[in-house]
Amino acid sequence: MNECPWKLACVDCSAEYSGLAVRFRCDCGATLDVVHDLNLLKDGLTLNTFDRRLASKQIWDRSGVWRFSELVLPLDPKEMVTKPEGNTNLYASARLAEYTGIESLLLKHEGENPTASFKDRGMTVGVSMAKKLGMQSVACASTGNTSASMAAYSAQAGLRALVFIPEGKIAYGKLSQALAYGAKTIQIAGDFDIAMQLVEQVCADQGIYLLNSINPFRIEGQKAIGFELLQDLSWEVPDWIVLPGGNLGNSSAISKGLGELETLGLIKKLPRMAVIQAAGANPLYTAFSTDKDLVPVQNADTIATAIKIGNPVSWRKSLRGIAATNGLVEQVSDQEIMDAKAQVDAAGIGAEPASCATVAGAKKLVERGVIKKDEKVCGILTGHLLKDPDAVVGYHKGTLDNIESNFQNAPISVPAELEAVLKAISD
Hints:
By secondary structure, the chain is an alpha/beta fold. The protein contains 17 helices and 13 strands. The chain has a domain at 90-116 and 218-397: Rossmann fold (3-Layer(aba) Sandwich). The strands form 3 sheets. It has a 6-stranded mixed beta sheet, sandwiched between helices. Strands 8-7-6-9 form a 4-stranded parallel beta sheet, with helices on both faces. The radius of gyration is 21 Å and the shape is globular. The protein starts with 5 loop residues before the first strand and ends with a helix. 51% of the residues are buried.
């Protein structure tokens, strides 16, 4: 293969590798960045470049990832495996403004992607690279959304897909997608972090292409969340971007992408970034609060399964982005997550529990006086409501362990009689 216009660089020691090397870690063990030569783009790339593509009928321009290909990965369109993804909506809600205390709160709903989570943005790039590199098989460890996305994109690309999931700890709304799209699904007797260790070993031993967020090309695709968010705002930078933190690919990606826009002079400032973790899976929060290296949380536990990760692989990249944006990390309880979810759902938007850590965290930061009520805040919702229907029904029926249903909307059972129905709807 010929050399390409990007390279891989170590996050820790800055060692460099070919952009076409099939590797996910540096020789020192740290994760890798995709590094673009931004000097090649300074003269010809403008925001109008991206805006003009919104009117295109080409599938790669309609993609909310490949529309920004110069800053994501400059592949030939024939090499792009796209559904297309992105183009998710940005929602305002008077109900949520009141609930959080933020006058200008907008929520970008990544659950509107093709497989109903933000993972599609990274997966379109990761699977495209797997195909470009001539790989035959791809694999991931997953709490659900990654497996659903990888299974769909690998099926489209004609690649064999292997999914490692923690046994009994994955929402059926997500597991069903991996099975439906044909992935060979292996349940591991352990949590996500054990599954992640095993999938790395299997990929290294068998020459399989790994598609977790340790894959630096996944991060490049997820940068497009930030690009598209600013495009939605006519390139006006908000004061804050708030998002959930699990394996920390999104916070790493969005901060990296916005930093590149600033370096190119396409935006004049960076938003502050707030990463919100569940209190039962909060290693980044602890590292940030103590100003120390991350210590994995053993047996991470939260109802928000998508962020139930005790040893996130992208933690150094995430902390780097938080520092660059003068950001912070907050934690919220499962109770706060589920109450916020009830409000997001009741606003007609809807999202899975992990997504709603965003709203719970924003509310908490307003109460602490960190986010001001008149600041412009954009939150990221990462997955669709139907990814975890059991959590929804359990909350409204009042059957979730250790959760009070403070905003309950329970179903009402009545006899099949008109009088009983009329009484029920009038109460």
